[in-house]
Every structure is written in C-alpha cells, then in structure tokens.
Amino acid sequence: MALEDLAANQTSGLVCAHHHLYSALARGMPAPPRTPTSFRDILELVWWRLDRALDLEMLEWSAKLGALEAIESGTTAIVDHHESPNAIEGSLDVIANACAEVGVRVNCSYGVTDRHGKKGAQRGLEENERYLASGGTGMVGVHAAFTCEPDTLLAASELAQNHGVGVHIHVAEGPEDLQASGRLRELSRDDWLLVHGVHLEDDHGLSGYIVHNPRSNMNNSVGYAAPHRLGLPIVLGTDGIGAAMLEEFRIAYARLREHDVTATPELPWSWLETGYRITPEAADDRVTWLDEPIDPWRLAFHTNMKPQSVEIDGEVVYNQGAPTRVDATEIRNKAAEQAQRLFAKLENMA
Predict the structure, then answer these.
(1) How many domains, the chain?
(2) Which residue of 39, 51, 170, 253 has the lowest C-beta tally within 10 Å?
(3) Residue 111 maps to which CATH number?
C-alpha cells in the first residue's frame, strides 16, 4: 500500500481475498428448518440449501450488489468463490460481467465438489475450464477437501496448473476437514488460496496463502485460526459478509488482540497489504477517504471511515457518495426483488 507515497487521505484499492458474492441476497433469508448446533449443520441447513436455490438471474443481481458495496467501502478487487449447483454453466461469466459493469476487479472460480455426485463435480471442473480458457481472470475453485474425492482434488489441481493459476479452496474451516493437510499436501502450490485454516496443524506442510476471515470464523463458532502460527503469507477475506475490508481489518485486530495483548495493528494491516500479491493491479487503484491520516493505529479504532472517491484502472467509479457507472438505487431494488424470489424458493425447499 506504500502509504508514505500517497496523499494523507489516500490508500491503494483494498482487496477482498475471499468472497461469496451470491451471499449478498442472503440477508433476511428464512430461518433454517431447525436451529444449527454445529458447523456441519450451518453448512447443510443454511449455505448448501441457499446455493441449490440460486439461478443466473439471482446471481447477476447479487454480484452487482456485492460489487457496488465493495466500491462503497473502498474495495476495488474481489476474489470470488462461487457455487450454484443448479445453475453452473455460465455462472462465472455472469459474475465477471456484473462486476465489470460496476467497475470492480474480480477473480472468479467455481467451487468443485462431489456433494452432488461425480457429474456435479465434472460440471464444476468444466465451468472453471471454460471460463479460464475464454480468458477470464480466475482460479480453479474447490469447495473443501472433505467434500471431494481424491480424483476430484487431483483433477482440480491439474486443471489449475494447466492454466497457470492457483486453486481457491476452503481448508480446515471446521472439524469436518481435519484431514485436509494430509489430503492436500502433495497437491498444494505457492499460488493456492487456503481459506480459513482454523484447524490446520502448525506443521501442516501446505503451500499457498492463508486467507483469514475472522468475522466469519466467529459467526460460525469454528475457533480462532491464529493465522500467523501457520508460516505462510496471510491475506484477509470476508467469506461473503460484504467486502468492507477496513472493517475486516479492525475485526482481525480485535480478535488478534484478544488472543495476544501484546499485538499491534501493524500485523493485521500487513495481512491487508498482502492482498496486492494476489491482485497486484489493485495497488495502482486509488481510494480517497473523507478523513485522514490513514494510519493503522488510528484505523483500528475508527469505525466510520468512508471513501470520497474510488479510482480503478484510471477511472473514477465512485465519487461523492455515488457510483459513476451504474444506478445504485436500481441495483438495490433489483437485488431486493431477486432476494424475495430466493426466499420463496427456500421456503418451499425440502
């Protein structure tokens, strides 16, 4: 971010290194059939039901809403991880085009899984292949090791190598995935995104980046990752809870400080800056904030920092409280309509 090279009220564009843009429609969704009592319950009763209900129209407006909210918070680059098992083909194009319309940089991947059988896994691999082969900016997505057979994990790894990209995968988020390091050790590479890592062993032997999502980890009650123990570069993501990365930085600091009273904001700030190793173009974007100076110690306790303007690839895409390319009111209204469609499907889902 090289703050010393910028104006006192400026930063580079912020990077969200792990998002689920489809979750933008989830706010206010109907309660699950029963109250989840474990992480596996949360997956099965909430998120795996939600992704089965998605269609491409819902996905378009959820991505536009997520992209809009990103620039409204100074985030110019999103690394997205997507799953919609009943609307796979073309889904990554829908996300990429929606973000391009708003003006946000996006890296897309489809989360391959065997939860829907071998045909479902193959369709996920083919969507990653199709998107990357067409020139899309992305990675190969995998849901998690515990939902994939060994041959699926190998196929995803080989596909990523063929396209010169990494694999974007949830790793040891909950106790269900305790075997992740053993299953992925011979496959992982330096360009992989290892999301969560809460239950990874200190001597896990994996390669890649740890993507720390402190707010999501607390929300799912999976524990504290203490990511700095894992010996890999660390970046910050939100796991689908918006893209407000200054807020995620503050939460990362608060959670770290609870764990270690000697910790300072400089460490989680460095995690935010590591995002430029994943999306280097965002370092050249410019966010001008309504307050100054931009200092990690100050921002750790400043809960109302807002952008004045956001410039991506030389174009001002947000200025004086409004996007310049799109109608924010239209996006919010259309997204609300799609959310109601989604909620109706969830109400009627077995």
Answers:
(1) 1
(2) 39
(3) 3.20.20.140
